[in-house]
Amino acid sequence: MSESFSFASEKAGLPPGSLVHVGKVHQHAHKISVVNYNKSTLKKHTVNSIDELLGYKLTDTITWVIIDGLKDVSIIEAIGLHFDIHPLVLEDILNTHQRPKFEEFNDYLYIVIKAISMGNRSLKVKYEQISLLVLQNFVFTFIEKPDTLFHPILNRLDNDKSQVRNLGTDYLAYLIMDTVVDEYFSLQDAFDDLIEGVEDKLLSNPTSETLATIQKIKRELIFFRRSVSPLRELLAAIHRSESPLLNEKTKRYFGDVYDHAIRIIEAIESYRDLIAGMLDIYLSSVSNKMNETMKVLTVFASIFIPLTFVAGVYGMNFEYMPELKWRWGYPAIWVFFISVSVILLRFFRKNKWL
Questions:
Q1: What's 142's DSSP letter?
Q2: Taking residues 249-261, what's their average pLDDT?
Q3: Given a cut of 90, is residue 287 above it in pLDDT?
Q4: Is 134 within 8 Å of 241 (Cβ atoms)?
Q5: Regarding predicted confidence, which is higher, 291 or 86?
Q6: How far does CA 264 lie from the centroid of its chain?
Q7: DSSP letter assigned to residue 149
Q8: What distance in Å separates the CA atoms of residue 103 and residue 109, rounded to the nearest whole number?
């Protein structure tokens, strides 16, 4: 076991290829799950060390190894030692702040992709880095915490007539990526519902909470876009690759993932435009509400201006003001006040100022 860093900047000064876990530490026991299969056989079990996998190097079966947890650096070191993986690749596996990417080597492929899901709390999106090492007969999958994401693939493997049982590691890698990208559509639906709800509030009664919600959506969309946009480049690189580990038939399946990624990216771009428009609508709504408030206050101020003027004149108490001695002066001034108020209100309504 080794110390974990929260930020990549904490690794400053360490030599290249230093194996240090960078990311959130999930408090769960590390687990190495193994699925070994071919067309006629299937075996699922767990192992305690990478050394127990070496026997599968001599078989013609496909071995899918799922490493659950990254804090135990010794597991990553053992994979690098026994399967001749470059130290910089091992370093990237342990650094969970990687950008989605595809790297091609002589004997293996390295793929980084982000698993994204909506958390239990509203507007809280969860991100998890998934790294893949694709070898001739092995696929290593590195995840940060226990997840049910791959259960559909495991269920398909139970069917001996499933296509995955008849194809190689490249097809398994495709299934993993396709499963991750398909989860993005669930997140897209969640954003659709959130944005629709905010739009309804904007049109009815926008408040400061509405603005806070818009800002949260905007922030999450920035992270979402940062995690999804590189998929276009990643999948295009897979399509161009001439690695013998990638079958031409399988590349067509990766093309389907590419189409899904493009749809998600286009949806994110449309969300950005919607959010920008919603901010403009919010500011306009607040400005209109302020204008309506100021209009009402101005109308009342306009009504009281002549009344205040008259009250001010007769409040000077000069000795020779004959109106001060009138018996009906007080009732008369109230008749004047009420008449002026009614006339001005009717005038404002007639001009649609109220």
A1: E
A2: 91
A3: no
A4: no
A5: 86
A6: 12
A7: T
A8: 6
Q: Whole-model pTM? A: 0.79
pLDDT at 1: 46
In the block, residue with structure tokens 């026991």: 29
Q: Annotate 332-354 with DSSP letters as a single string.
A: HHHHHHHHHHHHHHHHHHHTT--
Selection from 157, 173, 175 nearest residue 165 by Cα: 157
CA 44/CA 34 separation, integer angstroms: 6
Q: Report which residue type is found at 296.
A: V
| CA R_g for the chain | 34
Q: Tell me the DSSP string of 151-218.
A: HHHHHHHT-TTSGGGTS-HHHHHHHHHHHHHHHHHHHHHHHHHHHHHHHHHHHH---HHHHHHHHHHH
Residues 6 or more apart whose CB falls under 8 angstroms from that of 117 comprise: 125, 126, 183, 186, 187
**Within a 10 A sphere around the Cβ of 60, how many other Cβ atoms?**
7
Dist CA 116 CA 113 (whole Å): 10
pLDDT in tens, 166-192: 888 999 999 999 999 998 888 888 888
DSSP state of 114: E
Ranges assigned E (strand) in the chain: 4-5, 21-22, 31-37, 42-47, 62-68, 101-104, 109-118, 125-134, 138-143
Cα angle 218, 229, 186 (rounded to 5 degrees) comes to: 65
pLDDT tens digits, residue range 51-105?
A: 888 988 888 899 999 999 888 888 999 999 999 999 999 999 998 888 899 999 9
What is the set of domains in the chain, with CATH numbers? 4-284 (3.30.460.20), 294-350 (1.20.58.340)
Q: Write down the pLDDT at residue 146.
A: 77
